[in-house]
Amino acid sequence: MTPLAGCLLVSALLFSIGLAGALTRRSAILVLAGIELMLNAANLNFIAFWRFGAHPEFLTGLIFVIFSIAVAAAEAAVGLALILAIYRHARTSDVSEITEMKG
Amino acid sequence: MGMTFSFLILAIMTLAGGVAAMTMRRLVHCALALVVSFAGLAALYLNLGAEFAGLAQLLVYVGAIAILIVFAILLTRGGEGEPEGSFSPSPAGIAGAVAALAVFAVLTWAVETSSVARAGAAVAAPQTTMREIGFALMQRYVLPLEVIALMLTAALIGAVILALREKRNEPADGTAQKQGLRA
Amino acid sequence: MISAGAVDQVFVTLKDWIVFHTPAPLQTLVSIVIEVATIIVVFAALFALTTVFERKGLGRMQNRYGPNRVGPFGVFQPIADAVKSLTKEDVVPRAADHVVHYLAPLVLVGVVFLTYAVLPVGRNMTAVNLDAGVLYFFAVGAATELAVFMAGWSSHNKYSLLGAMRAIAQMISYEIPLILSSVPVIMMAGTLSMVGIVEQQARTSGGLAHWNVFTPWGLAGFILFMIAATAETNRSPFDLPEGESEIIAGYFIEYSGFKFALFFLAEYLEMFAVSGLGITLFLGGWSAPFSFLGWIPSWIWFFGKLLTLIFGFIWVRGTVPRLRMDQLMNFAWKFMLPMTLIVIFSAGLWRFLSAAVVGPMPLGGVIRWLVCALVILAPYITLARGLERGRRIEKRVYRYAE
Asked: Partner of B164 at 20 to 30 A CA spacing, among A44, A80, A99, B5?
């Protein structure tokens, strides 16, 4: 197995773990954590392709990861603020109990 | 062969952290396991020669996002409340696990059969200095950088508005800390 | 006669000699072990020295003796303390989360020691010369917040949880001014490597070194950096997370014996590390301020500056009363943050006011200094006036303690 394939497999596993968590866990915070894991798996792919790709000197994958980390920070801040707002409203952060969109 | 021993250790650490984060019962334990996973990923980036990305990952994920998650857990009473059942045997839960497994199978098949993954031989680590990354960010990628800055500002304002909105109805809810954070 | 250069490099030479005389396959390992062991031993010894120094100093400021029983003038007090904390019973609360409770002090001390890897304590005396040294320092240092949370949450005690939440809120708020106040230095040096930053400041012109603190943005940045560093290390007057009189000891209330000593150690190590960063960024690292003092070994300069800053910390602790939570947050977000941004702007101005714009060196330099200082001072006065407006200083009213 080449190093690139190893990275891709680790990334695929991480993505599946995140997906499984996001689909099965009931706490909204853990759903968000699962999404973060999937995002991280994608980042690992970018780094791997940059490292073992044809033109590492263009830094495309690396820069993409940096931007992706910034987006993830914004996503986490807004997502957790939403969870807090929902919790204040519905008194729960269990996604299976939040069934109404009506306020 | 080609994967180094350190890569293997770090990959196992990352994956174990991920599995623990998604299966443990207490939310705070999940958050701490998530941190292990994030730190393992940062070390993986460093191992692959992406120094800046690894350190940024550490600074943002371990230093900020993990803390945010922990704060959210405590503010939604996840810290002490009844531990959530880990894998609920509901049909939806099983369907979710099966879907994740299917995705993993497809991804593995893609990796195993693609010519790109096989062609990626061990090349020498590209020597990237911080100076080059700085020039790339300031010249070639300056527009994305500005867009990201704008988006971060919007996210900051949005998060503050979301978290502060129903303040009048909830006078004493342990939100003083949060307001202090954002004041 | 031994030359000054040989004395300066004596530790480097010693290490090279040891590494040279080990078998080739072990050389990397031995080199790493020597560096790590030196860092641990030196800074742990400095910690022992500082504890007695601090207690004596505080005692002097408060008109009492301080420790004076163990050894001459009480200098062996740290040994007595170490024996005490090692032999004490290690109490773990029954409700505590044992694994996390056990891990928290280890994570804290480990993370703090990791930050020393990039600190240049002398010429050619840096464990790892990372290209992104400053970023590494902040990235690794960010993990201390998590260790504090682990300690506070796992103890299952409301005081410890409150202390941890206070500590995290404070550390996050002051991390932003801390990082932003080091941005001008990075901007002007054009590198994130600590060694590179020090080497730029070690250059001299007219007998005076190019320390960043000699420029207006460097001076303002240094003051802001040290204030943020005081808050970041939970030192008085920002010691709300510990606040003995309010929440007893904050996040490490449920720790006893050796684990408590580890927290104590980590707190002081953090103080040394962040002071070392301040020295590296603003006070020229291991370099001498005047070229005629260049014969003094570089490591003496570094540790001399470090001890001076530590004395400053102790002095402040003995002088300033503790802040309130809202004062702390207001100070961080309404004063420190805008001021650091202004300092960054002033540094940019300094960069573009070259000799071609303001004239030849003696007079032009003075003009440049004054203009850049004005750019910082004017907003500072406006900001301070604005924050003070509508707030009258009156006789304090005690509602509960008449």
From this structure: A99
